[in-house]
Amino acid sequence: MGCDIREGKPSIFFAHVLDRKLGTAEERRQLIEIVRRSREETSPADVAWAIDFYRRIGALEFAQGEARRLIDRAFLVVDGLPMEEAHRELFRAIGRFMIDRNT
Fold this sequence. Notes:
The chain has 103 residues and is mostly helical. The protein is built from six helices and no strands. The termini are close together.
């Protein structure tokens, strides 16, 4: 997440905030300004502020919920594939790792 903020890449967190108009208008304006900055102009304090803001308004939980929903759909597809159960479990383990890892 911090890398996307430093790079100025819009993310699911960013889209969620703007789509749902979360936080105050001033907080959204500040977030947009941070994301628009170049990597060189984005300070560690900017990144920390954006991460804290995402945490406070529930964007992290939203993104994790979306990831779990998509992984559950993917597991349904994997379950229908003609392969050994051990291979299915490998796909499931990778999926669980991707949504449970700390970013």
